[in-house]
Amino acid sequence: MKKWKRLAEAVAAPCVLYLLAVMPRMANRPDMGLLDRKYFAHRGLHDDGDDAPENSMPAFERAVEAGYGIELDVHVTRDGIPAVFHDARLERMCGERAAGVLEDYTYEELQQFTLGRSAERIPKLEDVLRMVRGRVPLIVEIKSETTDVSCCEAIDALLRAYDGAYCIESFNPIVLLWFRRNRSEVVRGQLATNFRKDGEFHNVFSFFMTHLLFNFLAKPDFIAYNHEFQGEPGRKICRKLYRKPAAAWTVRTNGELEKLRSEFDIFIFENFTP
To answer: Which residues are catalytic?
Structure first.
């Protein structure tokens, strides 16, 4: 009997630590009403083959007209301007002439480049907010890959002045920690994937982020997970045990959408309309 008791005690301690590590925000929770809108257009309602490429003003206008929420990505330029763009580097969306990292350019310098095959330029977050005017909710993904999250201040300054529903999300738990400390009333989401299976495993931090082990710092209000790896235990615990909303990214067909309904509450979609 003593042997089994010692074994139970040895197992219980790490289980409790794990549950504490992945625990999202449970107290002083903000209003989550904006996530009642189940469908969010990934980088706007875009078509990279025409005049509404991803993260462009026409793509966002289309999403608003269709009544979908919008998911968008924000970097901060060298001169401190929050700009809406996904990749760290410019080449994929702006062509080989646009070599380098977005943060190395001023916003004015970025205006020499166009998006995809269109004549559209990289928009300012300020201009996107002015166009949306609160008509649909926003998921603002903050792009930051280091422990320097000073970009949050410039982005938050615009969001504070915005009269509309929005939340923030990031892969970087330090971004969420910044909002936890400075803007606790803002809904915040932890983005994640299985970094090893996704080919993005770099170090032990990738392991921690895959398994949501930084939740004890970030205290997210929802989890946005790559739906291809929906079986990750931490994601399931956050939804089933802690009853936090789960967002699926990125859903690309109605068939995928139907299969995911039992495991997710919010759907970030592209290349089709739900």
So the answer is: 42, 86
